[in-house]
């Protein structure tokens, strides 16, 4: 009793009761908030902005004509850039077409089935990209499992060249980047109430019509997020194209690696990296604009 009465009297003191109030971010002044954020901003500036600025500065170190002018004079580099964008777009489209049904199954299946599907999605993420890329070499080589099965079933008389092609690069990159498309779509689908589908069905819509008119439009933010992540990662992918594509598959990351390690032309490699960075930023802005337009159409309807 004495302890409780003493606590009551202490709480009654001026300023002491404020210690028992829940604190939130609004309690801190702007100066204190900036002071708390400064370590994160310092790490961001030192670890990202400064190296990026040095990269751009290095691309201009020998003059614009010696680096960026070289990109315009030789059509090879424009072809490599277009090939990189085409491969990234193909990988993104394939990942969406393959990943959306998996994400839909994870969101709509029962707990045990959803757990099994989620395990199949997450387990590859625990494996190194190098190992997953090398696995495709084992599958697609001339004496690999795929050619062995094709010959054994009589579909072909001799091994088919599947390795060291753009198709092999697209297939392997789609397999590696597929979880990065599934997870954003799944995170949106699982938040959609089932009442929307029931309402559409009660109004006379069939399962397919309810999906295309209700579920698919509402899940587009997840589709755009997954497509953005997949496309940006595909633009800068290096290990899989280098292993599965071989010397015949020349993409921008492979070209940049060649300029830095083989030719030791750092200014030109910096120019290539800057062009690839600008292209990545334009893609992100385009996806953001597309998503905002889609939301605007959704609000109108």
From TrEMBL:
GO BP annotations of the record are: transmembrane transport
Any one GO CC term of this protein is: plasma membrane
The subcellular location is:
Cell membrane
Chain ranges of the ABC transmembrane type-1 domain: 81-287
**Short name of one Pfam family:** BPD_transp_1
- The source's domain of life comes to Bacteria
For membrane topology, the record states: Multi-pass membrane protein
Q: Which residue ranges traverse the bilayer?
A: 31-53, 80-103, 115-137, 168-189, 210-239, 266-287
* Matching SUPFAM superfamilies: MetI-like
InterPro entries attached here? MetI-like (IPR000515), MetI-like_sf (IPR035906)
- What is stated as this protein's family in its record? Belongs to the binding-protein-dependent transport system permease family. CysTW subfamily.
Q: What is this protein called?
A: ABC transporter permease
């Amino acid at each position: 009793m004495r302890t409780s009465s003493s606590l009551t009297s202490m709480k009654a003191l001026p300023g002491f009761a404020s210690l028992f109030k829940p604190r939130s971010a609004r309690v801190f002044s702007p100066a204190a908030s900036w002071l708390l954020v400064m370590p994160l901003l310092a790490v961001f500036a030192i670890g990202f902005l400064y190296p990026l600025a040095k990269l751009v500065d290095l691309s201009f170190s020998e003059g614009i004509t010696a680096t960026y002018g070289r990109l315009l004079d030789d059509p090879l580099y424009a072809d490599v850039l277009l090939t990189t964008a085409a491969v990234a777009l193909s990988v993104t489209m394939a990942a969406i077409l393959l990943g959306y049904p998996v994400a839909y199954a994870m969101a709509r299946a029962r707990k045990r089935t959803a757990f099994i599907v989620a395990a199949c999605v997450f387990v590859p993420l625990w494996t190194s990209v190098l190992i997953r890329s090398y696995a495709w070499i084992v599958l697609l080589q001339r004496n690999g499992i795929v050619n062995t099965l094709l010959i054994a079933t009589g579909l072909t008389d001799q091994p088919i060249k599947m390795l060291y092609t753009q198709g092999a690069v697209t297939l392997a990159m789609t397999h590696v980047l597929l979880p990065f498309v599934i997870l954003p779509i799944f995170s949106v689908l699982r938040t959609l109430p089932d009442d929307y589908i029931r309402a559409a069905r009660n109004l006379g819509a069939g399962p397919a019509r309810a999906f295309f008119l209700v579920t698919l439009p509402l899940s587009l933010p997840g589709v755009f997020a997954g497509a953005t992540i997949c496309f940006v990662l595909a633009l800068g992918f290096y290990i899989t194209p280098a292993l599965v594509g071989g010397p015949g598959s020349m993409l921008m990351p492979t070209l940049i690696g060649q300029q830095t390690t083989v030719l030791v032309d750092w200014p030109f490699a910096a120019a290539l990296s800057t062009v690839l960075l600008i292209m990545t930023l334009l893609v992100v802005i385009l996806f953001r604009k597309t998503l905002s337009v889609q939301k605007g159409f959704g609000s109108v309807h």
